[in-house]
Amino acid sequence: MASGMRKVDVIAGKVIGAAIRVHKKYGPGLMESVYKPILGHELVGEGLQVEIEEPLSLDHEDLKINRAYILDLLVEDEVIVEVKCVKHIEPIHASQLLTYLRLTGLEVGLILNFNTTRLVDGIKRVVNNYQEERDDL
């Protein structure tokens, strides 16, 4: 890893790189249900552990709700990836991802909107209690 880079940031970088490759190959216009397994396959090919459509439960007091929410991709148990094919990433998409991060206790999530001419225009990073490591600390 590069100096000062955290594992979660390296993983997020690999996810973005793989997503760009997928987008270059297939372009916009497919459904989310197509991009998710292709992206997952690419990431597994890079040696990463990937869960696709990972259902998670929610505990509320003495009530357990199974499958309360489903993560599009969970990479290395560190990064949540939400795959979108929408006109624009809306604030509600970031709020939803932040909720997932809070519920799982994870720090970093990515929204990848494949419905763009250039994928870099459809990437949004969302963080929850993220602390950058600094060499001078």
Whole-number count of domains: 1
Compute the separation of the termini in Å.
Answer: 18 Å
Residue stretches low in confidence (pLDDT < 50, at least 5 long) are none
Strand order in the largest sheet: 1-2-3-4-5
CATH class: Alpha Beta
Q: What's the CATH topology label?
A: Trna Endonuclease, Chain: A, domain 1
Number of beta strands: 5
Average pLDDT, rounded to a whole number, is 92
Q: What radius of gyration results from the CA coordinates?
A: 15 Å
The percentage helix is: 25-40%
Structural class: alpha+beta
How would a crystallographer describe the biggest sheet?
A: 5 strands, mixed
Indicate the overall shape. Answer: globular
What string, H for helix and E for strand, traces the elements in order?
Answer: HHEEEHEE
Question: So, CATH architecture?
Answer: 3-Layer(aba) Sandwich
Strand content: 25-35%
**Tally of helical segments:** 3
Describe the structure.
- With 137 residues, this protein is an alpha+beta fold.
- It has one domain: Trna Endonuclease, Chain: A, domain 1 (3-Layer(aba) Sandwich).
- Helices cover 35% and strands 30% of the residues.
- It has 3 helices and 5 strands.
- A 5-stranded mixed β-sheet has the order 1-2-3-4-5.
- α1 packs across α2.
- The longest helix is centred in the first third of the chain and has 20 residues.
- The radius of gyration is 15 Å and the shape is globular.
- The mean pLDDT is 92.
